[in-house]
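step: validate -> pass
step: tokenize input -> pass
step: predict -> running
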Amino acid sequence: MKILDLLKMDFVLPDLKARDRKGVFEEMADVVAPELGVESEELVKALLDRESTRPTALERTGVAIPHARFPNIKKFVVLFGRSVEGIDFRAEDSRPSHLFFLIVGPEDAPGDYLRLLAHIARLCHNEKFRQKLVKSSDKQSIIDVISDQDEKY
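step: predict -> pass
step: emit ->
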């Protein structure tokens, strides 16, 4: 499963305004919830619940991959967000997260869900990929960076 099959241009947020975890979830949920047919508040709650079990920030990367599954949706969506200032996502190394890949998928597709999560995590451990995303200033350049790496994995 390729990221760009699930990431629409409208799901790229190059300048997140939120300054905390809940704010990031609210900002992202407002964008993808209508596409999924769920309420933004319901998605935020699911993300907060998931995050409370274990932080989704990847150590030594400045990346977080918040994710949630829902029983009443039929497709996966991916949203990318970037925070120039960084946000505390409770990474084990205490570094702020600057890059965010939100994954929301159907509850009845655990295999696809885990493969997508692993695919994004592998990409995000590539320092050059992360640096390019940090330096990209607009939606199209972010899509181009993701597309280039998405094809390699």
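step: describe -> The beta strands are 12-13, 57-58, 63-64, 67-70, 77-87, 97-106.
step: cleanup -> pass
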